[in-house]
Amino acid sequence: MSTTAVLDAAEALFYQRGIQAVGMDDIRTESGVSLKRLYQLFPSKEALVVGYLERRDERWRRRLAEFVDAHHGPKILLVFDWLYEWFTEPDFRGCAFINSFGEMGTRSPAIMSVVRHHKKALRAYLVSLCQDVPLAEQILLLIDGAITIAAITGDPDAAWRARAAAVVLVSG
């Protein structure tokens, strides 16, 4: 239970405010877990960030796959429909993995590893949808671009513009 509370607090605070802006005391306060227990669960802030990202990766990719499986149409294009829904959520702040890499990745091999795993797993999922490695890699670029543009501009329609580009790629 306390691990879940800590990871819930970490995800909410790190995603909303950024990793460097959040201290372990903030996590303790938000989670209701003592600082001693927090450090028993996660001996360092880096370990906590890794735990947060690993859990977010699993949940994010599961939500995407569930959406794609539940809808009809070209599966590779449904990814962009899901992105639009995600971009319109009130707490959308962009890609947690790109954000974490930007803040900590070059200083933390552990965080870099989780970020790379997420991108490799997403690439593999896209390959499974379209059975075309070069196309999947191009779609991945469109996805990351759309996420970044939507986060920076606050415009969820970046998903539709990326989808339109994907249609050209798929039909080409």
UniProtKB/TrEMBL annotation:
Database matches in Pfam families: TetR_N
TM annotation in the entry: none
Keyword presence, Transcription regulation: yes
Record key words, sorted: DNA-binding, Transcription, Transcription regulation
Feature: DNA-binding region: 23-42
GO molecular function terms noted in the UniProt entry: DNA binding
Ranges for domain HTH tetR-type: 1-60
Protein name as annotated: TetR family transcriptional regulator
Lineage start: Bacteria, Bacillati, Actinomycetota, Actinomycetes, Pseudonocardiales
